[in-house]
Write a structure and sequence with these properties.
six-stranded antiparallel sheet; 3 helices; single chain; about 475 residues
C-alpha cells in the first residue's frame, strides 16, 4: 500500500505533470488526422427525438422496453491527444412496444465537462473531482437506468426518455470509482464489480451491491503498477480478477496522451479468485501467459470446483502510441483456473477475431450452452471497412452459426433478450445497431437468436457512431 507521504507527493505533482503534458500535447498529430473523429466515427452534433420510424419486417410483440447503447461522442472541436475511449458520453435508444417502434432518441450525458465546452447544462449529484465523463455502458441497476464508466466518475441515472437525471454514488455507499461492467448474479440478485483508477496504482476494489443497488461491501485488494481492469467474472463462490499487462503509464501521460495506459511487459499477468465475501488478502492468484482481455462471456464452476471463464483475448493491446484499442485478437478462449494457485490453462474455442461476447444473462455464473460474439475486421482497421460477422456459438456441439451483414454495413454489440422469463436458454432474440456506411444511415436489427435470421429492422436516418455497450432494458 502507498504511504500517506507517497500519496501526498502524487497529488502535489499532478498540476506540474498536467502542465508538461499540455505542452507536449501540442506536438501530437492534429485532431483531423485522428480516425476516431471522422468517417463513421464523426460525432453527432444534434440530439434527435424521432417518432415516425420506418420498420421492415415484424417486431416481436413480446418486446416491451428500450434498447439503449452508449458510446463516445466528442462535443465541439476535436483536440490533439484524443483517444476513442475519452469522448463525451451519448446514449442512443429505441423504445419498442406492442410490435411498434415508438421512438428513437439520442442524448448527451449532462456532465460538467460537457457544459464547460459549451454543451448543455450539467445535472446535479455527487462528483469525484476527476472529471465526470461517462460513456461506456448502460444498465438497469435496482430498477434505474444507469450510465457507467470505469476508473473515474460516479454513474449517472437516466430517466425513461434517456435524459440525465443526476450523478449517483448509490446513496452514498460508493466511495471511489466504479466500473463499466458490474455483473449480476441471477441467483442472489447481487451485483459485483472490480474497480480501479489511475490515482491509485497499488490498490483496486471489489464492490458488492444488493439487487436494489445499495452498496453492501467494498474491499481493497493490493496490486502493482496500476492495472487497467475493464471487466471481471463471477461464479457461485468467487469474484474473478483479471490483472493483466496493461497498466498506467506516466510516460504516456507526460507525452500528452489523454489515455495514459499502455501494454507493460514487466507486469506479471495473473488471475485472482476472491471469495465473494472475502478479504483482499484472501485472493488466490494464478499465473497466466501474458495477454489482455476486455470482455468476459461467462464464468462458472465445474464439477471439480475449477473456475471456467470464456472470454475474448488479445496477444497485446495499447502497445505503443495509438488513438484506439489496436491489437491482435486471439479469438474466443476458455480459461480453466484450478483454484489452488496453479497456472491458468488456456484453450482456443474459436480462433477467428471476435469481441463483445454475450450470453443469455439468466445463465451467468452457471454452466451454459450459447454465446453470441461480434467478429472483428480481419485487417484490424477500427474504421471497420472489412466485414464483421455475428457469431452464435453452441459450446456443447462446437457449431458456429454466422450472419454476414453485407458490404459496407457495420454492426455493433448484439445483446440476447429471452422470449419470456422462463424460456429455455437461447429462446429469444438478439439485437443491436448496424451502420450502413454507403447510405449514411443506421438500423436497430432484431434477429432470431438461434438462426440469426432477420426479423425486423427499425431504420434511423443518420449514422449512429460505433459505440461501446448496449443492453435491453425491459419496461417492467
Amino acid at each position: 500500500m502507498a504511504s500517506v507521504i507517497e500519496k501526498t507527493i502524487r497529488k502535489a505533482v499532478t498540476p506540474a505533470i498536467q502542465a508538461v503534458a499540455s505542452i507536449n500535447r501540442k506536438r501530437l498529430p492534429r485532431a483531423d488526422e485522428n480516425p476516431f473523429l471522422k468517417g463513421v466515427h464523426t460525432p453527432l452534433k444534434e440530439e434527435f427525438t424521432l417518432e415516425d420510424l420506418a420498420v421492415t419486417g415484424t417486431i416481436p410483440a413480446e418486446l416491451d422496453g428500450r434498447y439503449v447503447r452508449i458510446g463516445p461522442n466528442p462535443f465541439g472541436q476535436g483536440t490533439k491527444g484524443h483517444h476513442w475511449f475519452l469522448g463525451d458520453g451519448m446514449v442512443h435508444g429505441v423504445r419498442l412496444k406492442n410490435g411498434t417502434a415508438e421512438w428513437y432518441r439520442n442524448r448527451f450525458i449532462r456532465s460538467r465537462d460537457l457544459e464547460a465546452k459549451g454543451g448543455p447544462a450539467a445535472v446535479g449529484g455527487p462528483r469525484r473531482g476527476l472529471g465526470d465523463m461517462v460513456n461506456t455502458n448502460v444498465l438497469d441497476i435496482g430498477g434505474k437506468i444507469m450510465a457507467l464508466v470505469e476508473a473515474s466518475s460516479f454513474p449517472v441515472e437516466l430517466d425513461d426518455n434517456l435524459e440525465s437525471v443526476a450523478y449517483s454514488d448509490f446513496g452514498g455507499g460508493l466511495t471511489g470509482s466504479f466500473t463499466a461492467h458490474p455483473h449480476q448474479c441471477p441467483t442472489t440478485g447481487e451485483f459485483h464489480a472490480i474497480c480501479y483508477e489511475g490515482t491509485s496504482q497499488d490498490t483496486i476494489r471489489h464492490v458488492a451491491m444488493d439487487r436494489s443497488g445499495m452498496v453492501i461491501r467494498q474491499t481493497e485488494i493490493a496490486v502493482r503498477h496500476g492495472p487497467s481492469i475493464h471487466d471481471c467474472a463471477l461464479t457461485e463462490n468467487h469474484v474473478v480478477i483479471l490483472d493483466l499487462p496493461v497498466t498506467f503509464s506516466m510516460q504516456a501521460l507526460i507525452a500528452g496522451h489523454k489515455f495514459p495506459y499502455r501494454w507493460n511487459p514487466a507486469h506479471k499477468a495473473r488471475v485472482g479468485l476472491l471469495p465473494r465475501n472475502g478479504r483482499g488478502d484472501e485472493v488466490v492468484w494464478h499465473e497466466v501467459d501474458p495477454c489482455y482481455v476486455f470482455h468476459v462471456g461467462n464464468s462458472f464452476e465445474d464439477d471439480a470446483g475449477r473456475v471456467i471463464i470464456d472470454l475474448c483475448a488479445y496477444e497485446t493491446i495499447f502497445d505503443g502510441e495509438m488513438p484506439g484499442p489496436y491489437g491482435k485478437s486471439l479469438g474466443l478462449e476458455r480459461w480453466t483456473v484450478d483454484g489452488n494457485g496453479g497456472k491458468v490453462v488456456r484453450n482456443t474455442l474459436d480462433a477467428a477475431g471476435q469481441e463483445f461476447p454475450r450470453p443469455d444473462e439468466r445463465y451467468f455464473t452457471k454452466p451454459y450452452r450459447y454465446l453470441w460474439t461480434m467478429g472483428l475486421p480481419e485487417d484490424g482497421d477500427l474504421e471497420f471497412v472489412a466485414p464483421m460477422p455475428l457469431y452464435r456459438h453452441d459450446l456443447e456441439t462446437g457449431q458456429r452459426v454466422q450472419r454476414d451483414f453485407g458490404e459496407g454495413r457495420i454492426p455493433g454489440e448484439f445483446v440476447f433478450v429471452p422470449r419470456s422469463e422462463n424460456a429455455p436458454e437461447g429462446d429469444g432474440w438478439v439485437m443491436g445497431y448496424v451502420i450502413d456506411r454507403d447510405e449514411r444511415t443506421s438500423a436497430l436489427e432484431i434477429l432470431d437468436a438461434m438462426s440469426l435470421d432477420l426479423l425486423a429492422a427499425v431504420h434511423i436516418p443518420h449514422v449512429i457512431p460505433p459505440g461501446f455497450h448496449g443492453n435491453w432494458i425491459a419496461a417492467s
